[in-house]
Write a structure and sequence with these properties.
By secondary structure, this protein is of the alpha+beta class. The protein contains three helices and five strands; from the N terminus they run βββααββα.
Length: 86
Amino acid sequence: MRRRKKTEIIVERDQVLVIKRLNSQAAEWCDQCRKETRMVSVDEAAAVAGISERTVYRRVEDDLVHFTETTEGQLMICITSLLSSV
């Protein structure tokens, strides 16, 4: 009887996401958290939380994350509320 040898390969991956902005403050005020926190764009929020941009918009629509709009109309997501909703 012939024995078969089984080889198991495990691959581990780590990812680090660094968000730097040259022209913004370190923290901004979130009216709903009532404290200073980082506000990020929708694409940054999706990358940080590991979800799609559409999922970020759904969480905004369902009032699961805090947000604000800039004077240019860009949606900014409160990173504190986003991470607590994940």
